């Protein structure tokens, strides 16, 4: 690739510079791929590997994610190989939700593929490397405990941290609370290594009733669990149904406003955003108990 090609890529926004944590060998002084980290040490020299913030050039392959997925149908690969490729590309559709930090003007941004479960968000978890720690270091009352946990997390690779079967660990960030934008309840913010700064925004809204990792974490630390749906149908009350009537999905599915809890005839078109209409296929009564079941296809 010549200089002009590189310049064109940068000019089109397909290459950008950012700071992110990498696997860093303390002896070789280089970044390592996840596969080169074995039991927390460098496979070449055996020295400890830590997570270190580095400024790097990145290629924005997310711009081509859908094309990469679609074109897999045109190549003669084994289906299991195609599945591995789709999983590696990891394209997902969702929404960004802002949680206000209590007694401040700051907000904690999360990415979620399930904005419909926001009512069940009972706590938040951020990655150990998240900038929130440094920004609010003067308000955190257990900063030494937090820093100690950060140091331990830095010794693990992303593979080790995201291992499904590993024991969940974490520390509550005392002195900080987030506000659930739907319920307006104050919810605790935790730091845990099962959240990665390299995925999404490095912060999650935890919905323990509907996510296995969140559930394991919540049961271990005795955090609240609120069930939003049961057996395929959403068990909602009036507050939540009104909230859903104001959601606009980025994928251009629906924008509903001004609709309140009342009986809605079967097949009624609830709203439009100029592109697609959403039609209810079930009869829905008073508190919109089943409406969201139809929306779930689009989330």
Description:
The protein is 23% helix and 25% strand. By secondary structure, the protein is α+β, with helices and mostly antiparallel strands. The protein has a six-stranded mixed beta sheet with strand order 7-6-9-10-8-11, with helices on one face. Strands 2-1-5 form a three-stranded antiparallel beta sheet. Strands 3-4 form a two-stranded antiparallel ribbon. The relative contact order is 0.11.
Helices and strands, with pairings:
Elements: H1 3-11, E1 15-25, E2 31-32, E3 37-38, E4 41-42, E5 49-59, H2 65-71, H3 79-89, E6 95-101, E7 107-112, E8 123-126, H4 131-135, H5 143-153, H6 158-161, E9 171-179, E10 186-191, E11 203-206, H7 212-221, E12 229-230, E13 233-234, H8 238-244, E14 269-272, E15 277-279, H9 291-295
Uncertain regions spanning at least 5 consecutive residues: 231-299
Shape: globular
- What sequence of helices (H) and strands (E) makes up the elements? HEEEEEHHEEEHHHEEEHEEHEEH
Estimate what percentage of residues fall within beta strands.
25-35%
Could you give the distance between the termini? 39 Å
Total strand segments: 15
Q: What is the mean predicted local confidence, pLDDT?
A: 75
Number of helices: 9
Most strands sheet: 6 strands, mixed
Helicity range: 10-25%
Strand order of the biggest β-sheet: 7-6-9-10-8-11
Radius of gyration over alpha carbons? 22 Å
- Protein structure class: alpha+beta
């Amino acid at each position: 690739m010549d200089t002009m090609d590189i310049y064109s890529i940068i000019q089109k926004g397909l290459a950008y510079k950012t700071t992110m944590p990498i696997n860093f060998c303390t002896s070789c002084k280089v970044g390592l791929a996840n596969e080169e980290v074995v039991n927390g040490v460098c496979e070449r020299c055996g020295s400890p590997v830590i997570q270190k913030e580095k400024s790097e050039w990145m290629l924005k392959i997310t711009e081509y994610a859908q094309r990469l997925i679609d074109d897999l149908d045109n190549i003669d690969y084994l289906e299991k190989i195609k599945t591995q490729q789709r999983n590696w590309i990891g394209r997902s559709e969702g929404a960004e939700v802002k949680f206000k930090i209590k007694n401040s003007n700051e907000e904690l941004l999360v990415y979620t593929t399930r904005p419909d479960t926001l009512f069940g968000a009972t706590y938040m978890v951020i990655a150990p490397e998240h900038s929130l720690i440094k920004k609010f270091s003067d308000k955190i009352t257990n900063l030494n405990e937090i820093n100690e946990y950060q140091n331990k997390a830095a010794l693990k690779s992303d593979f080790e941290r995201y291992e499904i079967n590993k024991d969940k660990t974490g520390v509550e960030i005392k002195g900080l609370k987030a506000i659930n934008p739907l319920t307006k309840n104050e919810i605790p913010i935790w730091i845990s290594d099962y959240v990665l700064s390299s995925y999404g925004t490095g912060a999650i809204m935890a919905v323990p009733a509907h996510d296995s990792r969140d559930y394991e974490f919540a049961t271990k630390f005795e955090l609240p669990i609120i069930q939003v749906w049961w057996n395929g149908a959403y068990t909602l009350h009036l507050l939540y149904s009104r909230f859903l009537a104001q959601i606009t999905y980025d994928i251009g599915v629906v924008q509903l406003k001004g609709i309140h809890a009342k009986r809605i005839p079967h097949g009624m078109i609830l709203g439009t955003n100029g592109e697609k209409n959403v039609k209810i296929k079930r009869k829905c009564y008073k508190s919109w108990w089943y409406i969201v079941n139809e929306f779930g296809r689009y989330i």
